[in-house]
Amino acid sequence: MRLASIVYSCLFLAAGGYASGQDHLAWRDYGGSADSAQYSALRQINRSNVSKLQVAWVYPTGDGRKYSFNPIVVDDLMYVLGRNNSIVALNPATGKEVWTYSSGPDTKIITNRGINYWESKDRSDRRLLFASNHFLRAIDARTGKAISSFGDAGSVDLKQGLGRDPKDISLVQSTTPGRVFENLLILGSATNQGYGSAPGDIRAFDARTGKLVWSFHTIPHPGEFGYETWPKDAWKRVGGANVWGELSLDEKRGVIYAPTASAKYNFYGVDRAGANLFADSLLALDARTGKRLWHFQMVHHDIWDYDDATAPKLLTVRHNGKTIDAVAQVSKQGFVWVFDRETGKPLWPIEERPVPASDMPGEKTWPTQPFPSKPPPFARQSFTVDDLSPFLSPQDRARFRDEILSARNEGLFTPPGRRGTIQMPGNNGGANWAGAAVDPSRGVLVVVSKDLPSLLKLQAKGTAGSESSDVRYESGFGFMIASDGLAAIAPPWTSLTAYDLNEGVIKWKIPLGEVPELAAKGIKNTGTHYPKVGPVITAGGLIFTGTRDRKVRALDVDSGKVLWEKDFEAALEGMPAVYESGGRQFIVFCASAQAGLTPATQGPIRGAYVALALPDASRPLSGASQ
Asked: pTM for the whole thing?
């Protein structure tokens, strides 16, 4: 198959080495390893030879669905999401299909960002664990056959066991995989965005039987820590505070790190007065029991939808002359929070600062919010008329100017209201799922961030015109996008920022990607638009990313310099994966099936996985950075 004849959504680069655990030589877990480092210790592909990458093989998915799947590789089988929501096993060296598991024609939702692998100690039992249509399922990793002894005839109903009537729960399954620890699969959940959503319990299931082993109530029940930060009956009716994004696991310590989302409803919290633990928090839980070890809340009483969606990053740093195992959490607000992994103590002071109060009836915003003193933020946190894009039409410029001047605009944490509120970063800005990677031994963190302002405007639903506190308000929010599809704020719209977390400083920052329509006019360094980009760092001294400008780039991790880039026929998203097969190193991207920048240029895309490798595989696979 000729590369020029393909429009594809998932990109693979080819490399080598295999090991279990968190030595970062294999890619057996979502994000590469249980610690979510998005890092590979393989170095066959490095600064000196990355320009020689070639296409090795192509596997078409056979459909035009949107793909953001991060493949895993175990026992010389690569597992991917394929046509019609099927799970496909491929030969990772050739791309040849080995087997296919069909999830069924009625599949409405499936774990589509990755998959979990579990094996028994003697390796006689090897399973793939995933969810579809709100049921947890298990299939044989060697054959793709369903395991009927798991749960009830092969499935576990995820709507059960949440303390709510399952018939009233419309959404609970996340599209992000969980984490496997020993014989447990630890899962978060996705809940609706509105009133009456499901609670965001973090749950652990037995990988053999499907039995529920433990639950952690992120909306505490009576007698549990944090219960007093909610109204007395909130645990019965309020939803959210869930982990719809990514979990990280310290396998050695047996600790799961869980970043939670906002409580629901996202933008109005009259029915949930209080700080609302454990919404918008980083939780450290005993992976065997679900017991809380420590927590930190990034947003008190969130009414901005400032979820913590990115995986906590586990790494080791030198801080004040001491070696510390740390956990770093990046956020939609553009902050980087760094804690001692064992104690939860921040490495640098965090200050509670006064923030604006709400003018909505009955809304009691929290008077302060936490601000880290270091490291500096990676995203812009304000938006005024002086920040408007130079590429706006006169009509769009006038419209956005009027909106900004008529709205509340008091900086970060300005509460939503009926007159409109400028939110920067917007609730789809800052860092999002898969958006960060670390070199876990050097203290290096890289973050992909998006500057996309929002305009929040609350409207009464139900008793219109009433000033009583039982009126439900919903936000008619929208992203501040011009008629040509570009953001109202001046570029860069997407940035890649590298931190030295030993010192808590920014090493470098660059615009990531371009807008093809502007680049064709000679306008570059704008950053790409609306990305869901997951970077990967390798021991070869490289960062690999794909972006919606239809390019893959390899950048120098120490300088941010682009060392290699290649044009492709589809917009690229998702997280690369790195693996070895037959002595060759492979790096895998899964990208969106949506090509183009604006609705006018978007068209049907037929997906494919594409593998790239060096022509010469004689170089070593692992070792120090080049």
From this structure: 0.94
